Amino acid sequence: MISRQTPFSQKFLALSLAPLLCAATLAHGAAINGGAAIEEIRVTADFRQAPAALYPSSITVVDASAISARAAQHLDEVLNLAPNVNFAAGASRGRYLQIRGIGERSQFVDPINPSVGLTIDNINFSGVGNASTLFDVEQVEVLRGPQGTRFGAYGLAGMVNIVSKVPTADFEGLVSGGVSNYDGREVGAVVNGALTDNLLGRLALQHYGSDGFIDNEFLGRDDSAERDELTARGKVRWLASDDFSVDTTLFYVDVDNGYDNFSLDNNRKTLSDEPGRDTQETLALGITGNWNGSDLFSVTSTLAFEHSNMEYSYDEDWTNTAICDGLACDSDLWGFDWWYASADKYLRSREAVQLDMRLVSKEAGKLFDTLDWVAGVYYYDKQEDLKRDFFDWDLYEQSRFDSHYDTRHIAVYGEIAAPLSDRLTLTVGGRVEEFDGKYRDNRAVNATPSETLWGGEVSLEYQLDDATVLYGLVSRGFKAGGVNGEALGQAQKNNFDDSIIAFLNDRLEFETETANNMEIGYKGSYLAGRWQVRAAAFYMERDDVQLRGWYNEGPLFVGYIDNGSAGKNRGIEIETQWMLTERLELFASIGYLDTEIEDFFILDNDVLVDKSGREQGHAPSYQYSMAAQWAILDNLSARVDVEGRDSFYFSDSHDQQSSAYNLLHASLGYTINNLHFKLWGRNLTDKDYAVRGFYFANDPRDFYEDDQAYIQLGDPRTFGLTATYNF
Q1: Quick check: is 342 in a domain?
Q2: In sequence order, what E strands does 145-214 have?
Q3: What is the dihedral of CA 698, 700, 705, 708, to 10 degrees?
Q4: What is the value of pTM for the model shown?
Q5: Are 580 and 32 in contact, with CB atoms under 8 Å apart?
Q6: How many CB atoms lie within 10 A of CB 47?
Q7: What one-character DSSP code corresponds to residue 616?
Q8: What 8-state DSSP symbol labels residue 240?
Q9: Which of 49, 203, 325, 465 is most buried (CB neighbours < 10 A)?
């Protein structure tokens, strides 16, 4: 591991911004011939759809062309395009998200409430990130900063909104297939068109598979971390009348991936004898109705149901019973098996129902003829059951842990936009949310967290002209508290020291976290719409920060969530897009992030250690992305992407870090009539980089004497060829 790099210096920031400043000088000093305007992309995650180029908040929209250029199958393969956004794996996919340094990095036993929410076609998928496959997706919207008014308890740090393609009246479709290294294969099909005069439909099916990137040398397998992902989505749009329409989405995803990603030697060669699984089977139904029958307001209502079954299992010792044969740790030399060998399995089932109804004013319905408004109610009820099969080292036998957690959110929200002048608009939004939880488990731990939560936003938006916006905002996000039930129960059951039990008992319920964010931003379009610039600077104060800690006693360990008193997150985000000519388009983004923990204590050898002043986990100081997309001929195109990020701490509870890295991706597309071929590659320099890290003793070859840093490596060099036939 490399040592922590120093935070962004002023010199580095100046060098990073130099290309942008040069481009601005060129844009104002000369006209570029032959360029076309950048195609408008609209944000759908807000109450009213708005152009992304003028949306008064920090947002990145990854469109279908960028998804296709990367041959991206899953959300984690495009997230690096958004500044100050990171993810953690510790699973078959990077399904734990962090925005501006805030977000979870794992889930083991106790339930969590994600800091970064995930919606797919208006359905709340927060906490079940394996569902974020990208086949037939129109765009991915990454909203940075607290989303207290719009998304409530699931938008403390931000929100990821995935929007799939909608049905249209024209009959069309496609079939696609592809192959790639590591025995990668994919096949998909889409059919779209009018079912009747007022009924439109779209059906998309895809299967993606790969042997994965791990060689299990003990079992002689190269597919112990395989990927096997099936996505099916049916969408129907009913145009009931000129004023009323209903969009129905039926979504099914079946992810049956292997999980064997940690090696004692920090490479892609494992020694485990019981590889795990990372599976998710989800069936969801979403129904959204839109009524425009009044001159005063429109009504949008979404009713959604989601059911998921998941397995997360792994070889806990990462080894096999023969690993010490012939070595100093050989059991034959000791007369007994002194090393440990076990597997851990978490079976989760969750059911959720969601109702969101809002009224949005029209021109004739403005209050006092000037004030636009939104008023809504929200209901979300989730039941989550866990069955954990594990080896109990106190009883020295296989054991079962069961827990059940019901949570309910009921909220009212609203927003008012007041024009203070022809160019200046004040917007005030707020949300009050009642949270109730009921937790119980088979270790007789019970808890009923309950609280009234609130958040919102006040913003000023100044329209310099039709293509330029300045904005400033103050927002408050919140994230509900929860329960550390398993940690306390396990400590009591395994007879941990009384001081440890008392420490965990004091943390049976952890508190709600809040984030107060101040942000200023600028968005402009120049050269007749051929060059766009978006920039934001933010400062965020976090209160009662929810941070994960660990306590270990040999093979026994417990994880718990604790509240640090506060934290600071501040930074800058800049994105630019330039249609240099009709055939050449350039993209660039950079994020700077400075974070700090305050008053967070962890247990280390029975001693409380204060982590105050340290940077937060999974919060790299800088992150960048650059791309060039070139239409070489009418039927031949190419794209090259370069991206990178600074090193970052893997956790808040230890000081191990990743290495900084840079990645190179490229694709080449060729079209013959209705047939399109794409040759693509990701991580073309085959860079090793970490997407998760732990720090503990787990190697019997050195008698478990020393804690070590263990990392999960991101995807190596992958390349392939896909073919798509459109009809």
Answers
A1: no
A2: 158-164, 172-180, 184-196, 199-210
A3: -30
A4: 0.92
A5: yes
A6: 20
A7: P
A8: -
A9: 203
> At residue 320, what are phi and psi to the nearest 5 degrees?
-140, 170
Angle between helices 498-505 and 485-493 (to 10 degrees): 160
The two beta strands, 718-726 and 708-713, are unpaired
| Structural domains in the chain (count) | 1
Give alpha helix (H) positions in 590-724. Answer: none
Bridge pairing between strands 184-196 and 116-120 = unpaired
Beta bridge partners of 403: 386, 441
- β-strand 482-483 against 172-180: which pairing, if any? unpaired
In angstroms, the CA 69 to CA 77 distance is 11
Report helix, strand and coil shares of the chain as percent, to nearest 5: 10, 55, 35
Q: What is the DSSP string of 30-42?
A: -PPTT--PPPP-E
Instruction: For 18-42, write each residue's pLDDT tens digit.
Output: 444 343 433 443 334 456 778 778 8
| Residue whose structure tokens are 């112990």 | 224
Q: Under DSSP, is residue 170 helix (H, G, I), strand (E, B) or coil?
A: coil
Can you read off the two tokens belonging to residue 256? 């049956």
Structure tokens at 700: 């019997």
pLDDT band at 503 (very low <50, low <70, confident <90, very high): confident
Alpha-carbon span 167 to 202, nearest angstrom: 5
Domain annotation covers residue 190:
no
- Give φ, ψ of 300 to 5 degrees: -125, 130
In a domain, 25, yes or no: yes
Tokens of 527: 């050269």
Q: How many CB atoms lie within 10 A of CB 145?
A: 31
Give pLDDT tens digits for 339-354: 889 999 999 999 999 9
Q: Residue 418: left (phi > 0), alpha (psi -120 to 50), or beta?
A: beta
Which amino acid appears at position 409 of this protein?
H
CATH number at residue 139: 2.40.170.20
Contact 413, 376 (CB under 8 A): yes
Going 79 to 146 to 116 to 382, the CA torsion angle's sign is negative
DSSP-derived 3-state class of residue 208: strand
Percent over 90 (pLDDT), the chain: 77
**Residue 509, domain extent:** 10-168+347-726
